[in-house]
Amino acid sequence: MRVGLMVGSDKERPRADRLAGLLDDGRTAEAQGLASFWIPQVPGYIDAMTSVALLGQVTERIEIGTAVVPLQTRHPLILAQQAMTTQVACAGRFTLGVGPSHHWIIADQLGLPYDKPAKLVRDYLDVLDAAFGGPGAVAVDNDSYRVHSPVDVTDAFDTPVLIAALGPTMLLIAGERTGGTILWMADERAIGEYVVPRITKAAASAGRREIRVVAGVPVALCAEDEVDDARGYASEVLGHADFSPNYVRLLEHGDAEDVGDTMAAGDESTVLARLHRYRDAGVTDLAVRVVPLGDDAEQRRASRQRTQSFVASLVSELDAG
């Protein structure tokens, strides 16, 4: 299991420092030997794709990915152009994570349709596949898009695509048509008994091998008597599951009731044991979301550094299984 880092919006940083701080985070993750660095498209926060392109210029080895960019907000050909340009900026280290997002973002915040998201994903991938096929004319006509346009960005790099797949239809699409899935709010049982069997079966039927299962997992290194508070805090700051019915349906396949229950929290041995369980469930790529604890910014900063350093120390062990 490859070990990487997933970041989110850092509201404790002054706005003027957020982009520079994110670039520092990427450089630090690479220096610590982490395999990947994942950035979500957070509503109202700095843009993920722009950030990835800049990260590609200040790092040399680490994979950099979006987790994830909502599809409804960008025409697929425009996203393809941006993704290929970003891939050039990253010298081939960029992975495009996309997904249909959630109704409260697409419909409630942006006023866009949120109808038949799985159908939209299939149609969207038609355009991405054609655009990523190489320089030339893109000609796609399906129920959602009519695209007849040239693409001439690069022929030097492929652009891997992963999709956020929570339901059975999306897992089928992920396995048949992409490099895998990016998960959030999925515990070990949901991954091992629900996600992995479906996506690997779909991939095998399509002749695809080495399908990726990227799991975003909150982690906090803390005392055992702080674990319950850490789980409650994680659920509060990372978004309760009941905000998004898609997450609720995914949680029904496991033992967790909210994001805090998917968390690896406790001392070193407790955190390591839970991360082993994620690996054994079939996770190929761990995207650690560090949850800093403490009563003030300085304590939380120290907590973040301790947890991230410990996770980085586990890279060889978790990758060995």
Short overview:
The protein has helices at 18-31, 48-58, 76-89, 103-106, 117-132, 168-177, 188-205, 227-238, 245-251, 268-281, 297-313, 315-319; strands at residues 2-6, 36-39, 63-66, 69-70, 94-99, 136-141, 146-151, 161-163, 180-184, 212-221, 264-266, 285-290. The chain has 321 residues and is an alpha/beta fold.
Task: Describe the 3D structure.
Helix 3 packs across helix 5 and helix 6 crosses helix 7. The protein starts with a strand and ends with a helix. Strands 1, 2, 3, 4, 5, 8, 9, 10, 11 and 12 form a 10-stranded parallel β-sheet that branches. The longest helix is centred in the middle third of the chain and has 18 residues. By secondary structure, the chain is an alpha/beta fold. The chain has 12 helices and 12 strands. It has one domain: Luciferase-like domain (TIM Barrel, Alpha-Beta Barrel), CATH 3.20.20. The mean pLDDT is 95.
- SS-derived structural category: alpha/beta
The radius of gyration computed from the alpha-carbon positions, rounded to a whole number of angstroms, is 19 Å
- In the CATH hierarchy, what is the architecture at level 2? Alpha-Beta Barrel
Looking at the structure, the CATH topology is: TIM Barrel
Taking pLDDT < 50 over at least 5 consecutive residues as the criterion, the unreliable ranges are none
What sort of overall outline do the alpha carbons produce when their principal axes are compared? globular
CATH homologous superfamily label: Luciferase-like domain
Q: Please report the total strand number as a whole number.
A: 12
Which series of helices and strands comes N to C?
EHEHEEHEHHEEEHEHEHHEHEHH
* Proportion of residues in β-strands: 15-25%
| Intertermini distance | 7 Å
Tell me the helix content.
40-55%
Mean pLDDT: 95
Largest beta-sheet characterization? 10 strands, parallel
Name of the CATH class: Alpha Beta
Give me the number of helical elements: 12
Tally of domains: 1
